[in-house]
Structure formats: structure tokens, C-alpha cells
Automatic annotation (TrEMBL):
It comes from the Eukaryota. The keyword Membrane applies. The keyword Transit peptide applies. This is Cytochrome c oxidase subunit 7A2-like, mitochondrial. The lineage of its organism: Eukaryota, Metazoa, Chordata, Craniata, Vertebrata. The chain crosses the membrane at residues 87-110. It is a single-pass membrane protein. CDD domains: Cyt_c_Oxidase_VIIa. SUPFAM superfamilies: Mitochondrial cytochrome c oxidase subunit VIIa. Keywords: Membrane, Mitochondrion, Mitochondrion inner membrane, Transit peptide, Transmembrane, Transmembrane helix. Its main location: mitochondrion. GO terms for biological process: mitochondrial electron transport, cytochrome c to oxygen; mitochondrial respirasome assembly; regulation of oxidative phosphorylation. Pathway: Energy metabolism; oxidative phosphorylation. Belongs to the cytochrome c oxidase VIIa family.
């Protein structure tokens, strides 16, 4: 025998197999029309697009090469200025703070409980 929760009383009641497996009275239906194709747009063959690549912006590689290859003694991750220094110092501060917090938590956890 199959059971389902009654919507009126909120208790289990006997049910037929068909109503027990269709939640909230939903019945499986067959769609009257076929669903539309998802990829219905025509596709382009690679040879039709041509060999020219179109970029959305300008090429910044030579400019960045000049910045990063400058022999000024600064590490690569600090060569772009103030923003790099702020990110580096923030990262180091959070790392050191997190390490200290973990060590403090381990120290507290290692202490025996005080008898009450």
C-alpha cells in the first residue's frame, strides 16, 4: 500500500500508486509541440571567417615589457606602483595576522580545562 501526506489534516493517508508518485496532484503530460532547438542559429565554418583576428583593445604588451624589464631593483610583483605595494602589504598583514590567530587558538586549545 502507498501513503501520502494529506493536505487537509497533515497526516499520512492511504493512496493509490498513481497519486502517491505525483506530488501535489501534478500529472505527467506530453507537450503538444516539440521544444524549439537550442542551437538553431547557423554556424560559421572556420574557413569562412578569414584569418584576421579582431581585438577589442590596443596591444599593451610592449608597454608592460618596458615596465617589468626595467632594472630598478624592485621585485616584479611591486613594479607597477602604489597599488601593488598596498596589495602586497595587505596580503602580508592578513597572512601574519592569520598565523598569529591560529597559533593563539592552538595554544588555547592545548590548555587543560579548569575543574569547576
Amino acid at each position: 500500500m502507498y501513503y501520502k501526506v494529506s493536505g487537509v489534516t497533515g497526516k499520512l493517508t492511504g493512496a493509490t500508486a498513481a497519486s502517491a508518485y505525483s506530488p501535489q496532484g501534478l500529472k505527467p503530460t506530453v507537450p503538444s509541440q516539440a521544444p524549439p532547438m537550442i542551437f538553431a542559429v547557423p554556424t560559421k565554418v572556420v574557413s569562412e571567417t578569414g584569418s584576421v583576428a579582431h581585438y577589442m583593445g590596443i596591444n599593451k604588451v610592449p608597454e608592460l615589457q618596458n615596465i617589468f624589464q626595467k632594472a630598478d631593483g624592485a621585485p616584479v610583483h611591486l613594479k607597477r606602483g602604489v597599488m601593488d605595494k598596498m596589495l602586497y602589504r595587505t596580503t602580508m598583514g592578513l597572512t601574519i595576522g592569520g598565523t598569529l590567530y591560529c597559533l593563539m587558538a592552538l595554544y588555547i586549545a592545548a590548555q587543560p580545562r579548569k575543574p569547576e
